[in-house]
Design goal:
Layout (H helix, E strand, L loop, with lengths): L3 H9 L18 H16 L9 H14 L18 H10 L9 E5 L6 H9 L4 E6 L5 E4 L5 E4 L5 E5 L7 H6 L1 H15 L12 E5 L2 E5 L10 E5 L10 E7 L7 H14 E12 L6 E7 L1
Helix pairs in contact: 1-2, 2-3, 4-5
Length: 296
């Protein structure tokens, strides 16, 4: 067994300053997570950082958040969740910087908006008068919500795709430690509720409730407004044109260099002349941007 501290000492030359994480076995977190953390330590070494720069918040994210959001943990699926307030600073930047000429409303395309689409909804609110489009390759056709507000996404075949605790939940670690039990509970609820649905067109949300559980079909539609729409498409296949802004945050990190270049080229096809492409990463907890780039 190689502990986290052993890897830190090997890469950064000294022990972790924080005791509780010393003996964490990286192999127990899975090979994908171990490779991620080793790459992080290697990049820290090459950047001249030390073990002291591994603060408790960063260690917590590496050991608890990263194992749950890498594609391997979800059979290759990119985690769809996002947090409220995450892109507020970008909305402010657009509102102050991008000027729309003429009588037509501005067009904002939010690529990889995820579900629930909190940040896209906030953008539509923060940019009144703009037409906002949230695009994503996969909006789960079915959502099951349990009595505590935790939810699970199901595909058309009834397979469990993803599950996530309520944002304000106090015991998120407990939710994930009992992943198999929680998943079976959601599956049982879906099996019970799905026959009760009265299927309608995919243009509106349909829901049923029983025993404290709620099942929604086409849940993404309940977020739409006159100036906010959601399209199930990837950036590479998006047919929208004439956009003033394309935002692609926390998405390109899942692609190799060739993939990132291809998506950047596609963003250019969507943009109007003089439009801007916002891309990079930011922190899950709020509007602190750790990397942000824009191309006019």
């Amino acid at each position: 067994m190689d502990s986290l501290n052993a890897y830190v000492r090997r890469h950064l030359g000294s022990d972790l300053p924080y005791g509780p994480a010393h003996e964490v076995d990286l192999d127990s977190l899975g090979i994908e997570t171990r490779k991620y953390i080793l790459r992080m330590l290697d990049l820290m070494r090459r950047s001249g950082l030390s073990a002291k720069d591994l603060n408790p918040s960063l260690i917590w994210e590496a050991l608890t958040v990263i194992p749950r959001i890498l594609p391997g943990s979800l059979d290759g699926m990119i985690p769809p969740f996002t947090n409220p307030g995450r892109h507020e600073i970008l909305d402010s930047f657009v509102g102050k910087t991008v000027f729309v000429h003429g009588d037509e409303p501005g067009i904002f395309v939010d690529a990889g908006c995820g579900f629930p689409p909190f940040t896209t909804v906030e953008t539509a609110r923060n940019l009144p008068g703009w037409n906002v489009f949230g695009i994503d390759q996969n909006f789960a056709p079915y959502i099951v919500i349990d009595p505590d507000g935790h939810y699970a996404c199901f595909g058309n075949s009834g397979s469990l795709q993803y599950m996530h605790p309520k944002l304000s939940a106090s015991d998120t670690l407990g939710f994930y430690k009992n992943k198999a039990v929680v998943g079976n509970r959601f599956r049982a609820a879906f099996a019970q509720l799905s026959p009760m649905l009265k299927h309608k067109a995919a243009t509106e949300t349909v829901s049923v409730e029983h025993g404290g559980f709620k099942l929604k079909q086409f849940a993404i539609r309940e977020y739409e407004t006159r100036r906010l729409a959601f399209l199930e498409t990837g950036l590479e296949d998006c047919s929208l044109r004439g956009a003033n802004v394309v935002r692609c945050m926390n998405l390109l990190v899942y692609f190799d260099v060739a993939g990132r270049v291809g998506l950047t080229i596609q963003a250019g096809k969507i943009l109007d002349e003089g439009g801007i492409f916002l891309f990079g990463t930011n922190h899950a907890a709020g509007p602190i941007v750790t990397k942000f780039s824009w191309i006019a």
